[in-house]
Amino acid sequence: MRRRLLALLCVTGSLVSACGMLPGEHERRTVTVWLMKDSASREFLQRFTEDFERTHEDLRLDIRVQEWTGIVEKVRAALEDDSGDGPDVIEVGNTQVPLYADDGRLVDLTLESMRDWGQEKWLPGLAEPGEDGNKQYGIPWYAANRVVVYRKDLFERAGITRPPRTRDEWLADTEKLDSGGDQGIYLAGQDWYTLSGFIWDEGGDLAREKDHEWHGTLDTPAALRGMDFYRRLQALGDGPVDADEEHPPQAGVFARGKVAQIIAVPGLAQSIVRQSPALKGKLGFFPVPGRTAARPGTVFTGGSDLVVPQNTGDQFAATTVVAALTGAKWDTELARTMNYVPNKTTLSGAVAGEEGVAAMAAGAAHGRATPNTPQWAAVEADNPIKEYMTRVLRGADPATEARRASRKITGALTPDVG
Which residues constitute the signal peptide according to the record (predicted)? Predict the structure, then answer.
């Protein structure tokens, strides 16, 4: 009891840390861990710290919570700091791993991944961005992705007895819902993450690497089919063609009523109900439908990986922490606590009792991430995909606009080609 009370008293603000040694204890080695704000609750970190330090008597955890704003520069500085005072484990966004691996400042964790951590069962949308060549630097921690959030009462009124499982069913149902002053779906014209899923489902890509150079590929037949489906679906509502899902925030639009569906992470339902309490109990979730009923549609998978800096003072201790956080016990506990998708397809049963998270997990099994290159951030900085989408939705020729956008993507990814 004394040890438990001590662990609880040591949690202050955004820092989770063990206090001084109890009488008779030997000296512990400190492992500094940077985790991002809101990735894990304070209570989860308390439980994990207490359990980890009880089962690893030679290690002490110093968990420091970081803000997302400015984190790329802060992580880069930490990776270059040879003072020995930096973090030993860092949480990074899954698509950010290439930014740090490109500098050669991360520990190669391929051996541990294959031998001990069940690499073959990881969600691809988390695992693939963590790779560089044949080396694994980012270890999947948790995932979150978009599902369809829908009004059960409006579906029932339209005579729809179950959620659609194919794209054709989805279009047909959405057309039924788009009547009587209701929007079948609210889909902003520049929701490029959702478009990406449709493109991947068709076998296309946003960009591809050939002969060590990246090229935009929105103008391929497969990518154009994905854009055509997006156009048909977006037309069954009144989403603005020149804005993304945050302008205005789609949760607020949905909360005002007259919208049957949106594509969002399940957690957005909480915001919707806060803004419109009358919708409590009326919201449902289903995976983004695929081309056939055999599997859900492909979705962009967001989430986080854990990395170990080369300049860690204790690589063994750092990998021990990574193993614990990403292992089945604590990864499923995090998923249940925070409504995330666990890092392995084999752990999806842990969240089967939550409708929204279960729908998310079904999609995450077929998730993807943005092109695995550190230059992708330059594409998003002045995103030509958004402009392309708006032009097509306003009636411009898709092939012409896709070629224009692809050239801009190529220029951002390979400046000497653009």
Answer: 1-18
